[in-house]
Amino acid sequence: MREHGTSRTTIGWAALAAAGALALSACGGGPQPGPEDPGPAGTAAPRVQLPKLDGEKLEVAAVWTGPEQANFTKVLKEFEKRTGAKVTFVPAQDPIVTFLGTKIAGGQPPDVALLPQVGALVSAVHNKWAQPVGPEAAAQLDANYSPGWKKLGAVDGTQYGVYYKAANKSLVWYNAKAFEAAGVAPPKTWKELIAAADTLSASGTPAVSVAGADGWTLTDWFENVYLSQAGPEKYDKLARHELKWTDDSVKDALTTLGQLFGRKDFLAGGTSGALATEFPKSVTQTFTGGDRPAAAMVFEGDFVAVNIAQTGEKVGEGAKVFPFPAVGAKAPVVSGGDVAVALKPSKGAQALLTFLASADAAEIQAREGGFVSPNKAVNPGAYPNPIQRDIAKALVAAGDDFRFDMSDQAPAAFGGTPGAGEWKALQDFLANPSDVAGTQAKLEADAAKAYGN
Fold first, then answer.
1. Can you say how many angstroms the Cα of residue 331 is from the centroid of all Cα atoms in its chain?
2. Taken in order 270, 275, 279, 284, is the CA torsion positive or negative?
3. Which CATH superfamily is domain 181-323 in?
4. Segments of 245-358 assigned E as strands
5. CA distance 249 to 227
6. What CATH class does 47-168+335-397 carry?
7. Which residue windows are coiled coil (predicted)?
8. What b/e string do you get for 254-272 counting C-beta neighbours within 10 Å, with b at 16 or more?
């Protein structure tokens, strides 16, 4: 499978790097707009009109679990209330293309699926599973989305998807008590990050909680280092496999990442602990234990806030955030997102796409935290705290100046499959960070096979 040419994306460097700085400064300061305060966006957008669907049954599939699934279910409940339809959430597994293929082969496709990779959308279209968006959903997209986000949901010029959820995947969340106890300030450069990690670990608190059991988090680590160090042009070429993974730029990025992964004392639980840690635990163990948590920092996107909430810690107080440190001239910002696509030609599926493209749906989940929408009609006051509000505002302000998560642009066999491709190669690298050349060779062999070149 070749990648669709419009999927060359990462949220604008300046805008979202600034968001991290805004968020950091917003941890203190004066009063902020509350969740019901319209804030600077002005008057709220009119409620979207939805058809009556009394008695219609819909299924919606996504890979979301835990609080993320629970919060999305609240959105579906509002859709049920306003249409009379009955909606069932269907938990999916990665790779979602394989999951959907099994469902479709069995004659039981969900009405709508939320796909976490651009490559998955392209596959769904090429497999003739996806339905183009109808006029009502298209009208919401035209009113509420920048052309760049619309393009991400299109294949060969036809609109198939609605980007319901976005993510800034270049944030480092830290335990403020642990930083204070060690006398460490948030780093701005990679060199400062390594120095801070050294100080934190020497103080008795491992520096970083790495979710090595979930390979997708390791791809995000690599992408941030690579984008900042190699620059956007090489990032785009590597994303399209126009540059080989044996290139020196990949060697440099892996060597840099090895400065962190190669220090067992930096990692919560050491190397073996990191390899056994799944993403939710990587967050919760960073924000429990007072000023002696399992780790002082955890890297991942704005959605980390959902897992922080489970610890009882508050974003902006005990849990703070800084932008991913600059490795090269500019700090990186990598974006991800989930695109809703109809898999059945039904009135209900199109109505749900229309709802998900509206500000109404996004504001429900925004209030729950750990969610950012690229929908520019969403009231900033819906976000529950200044940090998430600033991240969301910067996302919208970035307009079309963005790039997307590299592994999410890749064929799922390479960039989106547990235990295979990039996920597995980077897990092996975490286990043995000195084997840069071997990691490159494995990445290139798997990429060449998946891309067909």
1. 17
2. negative
3. Periplasmic binding protein-like II (3.40.190.10)
4. 297-299, 319-323, 335-342
5. 10
6. alpha beta
7. none
8. bebbbbbbbbeebbbbebe
